[in-house]
Structures are given as C-alpha cells and as structure tokens.
C-alpha cells in the first residue's frame, strides 16, 4: 500500500527529499549525541518552532525548500516506525508469530533507539474481522495468520534534556504496515462506511464522514479476548492526559502504509474523544486514502494536522485513480470516472506539483 491521501490541513512531500529508500530511513541524526550540547541557540530554535513543525501553520514556508530542522524531525519519527517493523515477529514458523519480539523495557534498545529519551508504555494490537478460508490454511500454510496481531506501540519522552530540547513532552504512537494475510484481506475491503457516532463531530444526515471499511474494522474490532485498538488508544491516552495535565504536551502519530491510515483514524478519534487533547499531528509514510470529503472536513475542523511523505515515483501512490466529487450524479454530468477508489476520494482539485518530486496538497 502507499496511496496518496490529499486532505485539508495536510501536506505531502517526496521521500527523495528525505534520503529515504524502500523505507530504510537514513539521516545524520545521531541518537547517542546529546542534542542539548549543540548550543543554546539550536535548542531554543527547535523549542520555539515545534508547533510549526507539527502543522500549526500548515507547514507554510517549510516544504520548498525543505526546512532542515523539519527534515530531522521527519526522519526522527521515521525511526519510530522502523522500530515497529523491527519489533514484529515475521517468522510464520515461530510460535510467537505476529507478536512483539521484545518486552516494552528493551524494545527501543533492541532497535537502536535507547538514547532517544523515550520509553514504551503500551503495546498495541489490531484485530481482523476477515479470516483466510479454512481450506487455504491447510493447502497454503504460509497464508495462515492470527486474528489479532501486534501492530505498534505508545512511547513517551521521559528524558529531561530531550523534553527541554523538544519544548514539550512528546507522546509517540507508532504503527507498522501490513504484515499478515488477514490484514491484506482487510486492505481489500475498500467500500466506504460511515464513521461511528462517537468518532464524529456531528450527526448530519446528508453530510456523513465515511472511511474505508477494512481500515475502520481494524481500528474498532474487538473480541471476548482481545480489546480493540480504539479502546486501547483511548484508555492509554486518557491516562497520559491525566498524568501530564500540568505539562506542555504533544501527541505525534506516525506509521507506514496501513499504519499511516491507522494513524489518521487514531488522530481523528483522539481529537473527537478528548476535549482536552493537546496538539495532535500525524507524520505518515506511504499512506493510503482513508475517507471521503466529509471525513476530510471533519479532520480540518478538529484541528488534526497531517504531514504525508510519499515517493512521487512510486506508481502505487497514484492508483487506482480518483474522483473529485462525492456526488455520483455530479460526476456523471461532468463526464468524470465513476469508479470508487480503494480508500476514497478527497480533494484533488488543488493538487499541484513543485520541483524535485515534492507533491503538496
């Protein structure tokens, strides 16, 4: 996956400009280096500008050319996504397949992020409704996958020097991309479905936010044994907001591919559920389309800021086409394609291209 999600309060730039290739993120950022020793000027610069880097001004003036400090922040969050992949057990022959390889206390250490100043406080799991048919499990053993899989984690900045450098205590929610057969099947469920009432700002009959059914299912499904990803997020964020209510706080949600889509749904859910939520932003990599125009408008009204990083040379980010209007009758009148895309159609009217493969919407 890796389709484009153009929405209001959202900017998109190419991975070419970040030095990323096949999601192997490389940068000059050294996690073992004490950032505060760079000098008071550098520390104050980031501390005073962090809201700009998280979209408070819609990244105006930061993307072309790409601001060097913003680039470092993007790469830093990319490392947390990479850690979500490193921690996942991809070995189908392993009894721990589709779980996290490491305990919370050593998760970031095993991924080379032990000196970032963050600690993991919660493991996250997503549950699939769709399952592989029984006959396929016997015939194709490598297609078998558990219904509930580890998909990411919540980490909190817990280092005084890093908090000073960042200008606030940062909460990171990081998601991996599609890994199991059941998750791939959920990705294929591309029909649009209405957001649940508790994830909407209003219940207007003719202007309902809609999102891809498979993505929403992964976020909201629970079982007798497994809590939904949504409930886990709400429970953990509620605890964090209560614990750090007297501090400057930010919530940054990041993910790749499927994880990028879940990051968008998570941001939407947090901003609607918690009236006292701090600045919530999304830094996503190669994410698919998630919802319709009304969903985009809801994200805009809720103040959710989304910075999308895509490879502009990747054809996957350009298919399966797009629809400009939600109203099918209007589409037919204007002679536009009448297919519904995988994901959905949101706001391609203002799409434009700038040099070096960077795409803004």
TrEMBL record:
Gene Ontology MF annotations: galactolipase activity; phospholipase A1 activity
Cell compartment(s), UniProt: Plastid, Chloroplast
Alphabetic keyword roster: Chloroplast, Hydrolase, Lipid degradation, Lipid metabolism, Plastid, Transit peptide
CDD domains: Lipase_3 (cd00519)
GO terms classed as biological process: lipid catabolic process
Protein name: Fungal lipase-type domain-containing protein
UniProt superkingdom: Eukaryota
Family in the record: Belongs to the AB hydrolase superfamily. Lipase family.
GO cellular component: chloroplast
SUPFAM superfamilies: alpha/beta-Hydrolases
Domain Fungal lipase-type: 172-322
Pfam families: Lipase_3 (PF01764)
